[in-house]
Amino acid sequence: MELARIQQLEELAKQYGNPLYIYDGDIIKSQYKKLSEAFNNVKEVTFNYACKANTNLNILKLMKKLGTGLDAVSLQEIQIGLKAGFTPQEIIFTPSGVSFDEVRKAVDLGVNIHIDNFPFLKYFAEEFRNYPIGIRINPHIKAGGNEKISTGHVNSKFGISIEQIDDLLELKNQIPLNVQGLHIHTGSDIVDIDIFLKGAEVIFDVAEKFPNLKYLDFGSGFKVPYKEGDKQTDIELLGEKLGEIFNQFIEKYGKTLRLIFEPGKFLVSQSGYFLAEVNVVKETPYNTFAFVNSGFNHLIRPMFYNAYHHIINLTNPNAQKKNYNVVGYICETDTFASEREISEIREGDLLCFLNAGAYSFSMSSNYNSRLKPAEILIMNGETHLIRRREVLEDILMTTEEINL
Ligand code: LLP
Questions:
Q1: Any bridge partners for residue 267, and if so which?
Q2: Which ligand 1 atom is at minimum distance from the Cα of 94?
Q3: Tens of pLDDT along 333-359?
Q4: How many CB atoms lie within 10 A of CB 170?
Q5: Residues at the annotated binding site?
Q6: Orn/DAP/Arg decarboxylase 2 C-terminal domain: which residues (predicted)?
Q7: Of residues 133 and 129, which shows the higher confidence score?
Q8: SS3 for 121?
């Protein structure tokens, strides 16, 4: 990490305290640029930001300014999206297992909706006849960095099975459904471009049976590098290859279709830095533990997915490296990193976790009654507080106190 960036992060920690989430808006901008340039061979293409990755209102406002649409998975994400300035037409709601009442509310708000099960298709036809929908297909493709983020395989809960397409067509003949799009998303952290191309072939085959489509949504799963030498999705090559077969398909289909992607990680992961301070360094006969003032309440990816987040000691970056287990203050095993080589850590040092822009704050909780950190956005050389640090009153606010 460059010295200027280290100094900037340290300065922000002094100003706003820690633990602290910091996002660099310029990195988000340049990631968006990379994506849009990679697919500039396709006539109509939209990137719907998968805001589950980072739902801060201001991050959504930045996406809107850049020109993305929005992929939302809950009523609340839709509401934040609308508040950020997205029009209902720019939002696609792709829920999984929500109540039909939530779908009804999304229809009331006028957003686009993806449906992935037969019962809801029937309810939808009964209540909303001509309202446009997209259908999520499960292509039976095994993909993704780990089991938890693999969503397109045969045993996955997501989508209508590719083996049920005939049933789907039959249902479509019986009830009024206005199917305007098809959607797949096979998982997150996909390096192999052939997986995307295979998914495309599956969706093209289904699309031939739906003559009135307006778009095909390929979901996301673009992998970003987490550690040095890590493989990532070659987005330029993907753009070239997928763009080419997409263009061939629309020629065959006979009319233009919009190509949609729903990137989360690719847009925001690398923009994020999570800072935490070392409370104590504890030596045992077997290990050296560096305890930070955080835990899986703030950053759960290492514990939940065994995910690697690179750690830099901002206070002592050039010291000799030693082996550490970086752990948190939660009363459970909350290991951020095991036997990791990091520049010598002392009590009071500030550690920085990289790739903390996606699925980091958005997956945080109040476990152990800990408070959520503040969030900062650096934009055009200026820094902005985009979420204040929580105080105890925030978690007490939703508690009903009764007389016992
Ligand atoms: N579209 C759909 C339908 C999705 O389910 C997801 C992610 C995305 C798009 C965005 O995928 P991305 O571009 O971020 O790979 N919490 C996990 C990742 C779970 C992703 C869930 N769905 C993690 O931290 O690795």
A1: none
A2: 3
A3: 999 999 999 999 999 999 999 999 999
A4: 10
A5: 221, 301, 305, 332, 359
A6: 21-357
A7: 133
A8: helix
| Distance of CA 189 from the midpoint of ligand 1 (Å) | 8
Pocket test of ligand 1: the residue of 135, 141, 188 to mutate, having most ligand atoms within 8 Å of its CB, is 188
Q: Which residues line ligand 1 (CB under 6 A)?
A: 50, 53, 71, 94, 149, 151, 185, 188, 219-222, 262-266, 301, 305, 358-359
In this predicted model, what pLDDT tens digit does every residue of 31-68 receive, in sequence order?
Answer: 999 999 999 999 999 999 999 999 999 999 999 999 99
Q: How far is the CA of 48 from the centre of ligand 1 (A)?
A: 12
Nearest CA to ligand 1 atom 24: 359
**Domains of the chain, with CATH numbers?**
3-21+269-396 (2.40.37.10), 55-263 (3.20.20.10)
pLDDT tens per residue, range 173-226: 999 999 999 999 999 999 999 999 999 999 999 999 999 999 999 999 999 999
Q: Does pTM top 0.90 for this prediction?
A: yes
Are the C-beta atoms of residues 103 and 95 closer than 8 Å to each other? yes
Contact indicator for 223, 145 with CB cutoff of 8 Å? yes
Q: What is the pLDDT of residue 13?
A: 98
Residue 68 burial class via C-beta count within 10 angstroms: exposed 0-12, middle 13-18, buried 19 and up: buried
The rounded distance, in Å, linking the Cα atoms of 160 and 138 is 5
Percent of the chain at pLDDT exceeding 70 = 100
Q: How far is the CA of 144 from the centre of ligand 1 (A)?
A: 10
> In a mutational test of the pocket of ligand 1, which residue from 52, 238, 305 has the highest number of ligand atoms less than 8 Å from its CB?
52
Q: Which residues are catalytic, by number?
A: 331
Distance CA 114, CA 95 (A): 7
Is the interface score ipTM higher than 0.85?
yes
Is a pLDDT exceeding 90 seen at residue 145? no
Q: Whose CA is nearest to atom 7 of ligand 1?
A: 188
